[in-house]
Amino acid sequence: xxxxxxxKNYNPSEALVKVTEKKCAKLARRLKDDPDAEANFTVTxxxxxxxxxxxxxxxxxxxxxxxxxxxPFDNVDVVIPRLLGQMRKQKDIWGKDKKGAHNxxxxxxxx
Length: 111
Hints:
Blueprint: E1 2-8, H1 14-23, H2 25-30, E2 38-46, E3 49-58, E4 61-69, H3 72-95
Parallel strand pairs: 1-2
Antiparallel strand pairs: 2-3, 3-4
């Protein structure tokens, strides 16, 4: 999985990059069968508040999570579980059968 970290009005520090890559291990385990998966972190600084956007693209599907606080490190701790929850929910939806009764046709003579 490829991890990109961008900054708007903020230059991401080496400590933030290391923490982000370490925390992305959970995402990498979830997406281990897709070598083209990509995670894009965007950290924006606005009036002493940091906004972190995480967009993960895998197999043509995009997942997005956002968090805002006074520390970019806290945002990483919030954004990744939100995104994993979205992925888990999508997996549950795709794994279920459709609602409703199945059509049952009896064999008989056509008139």
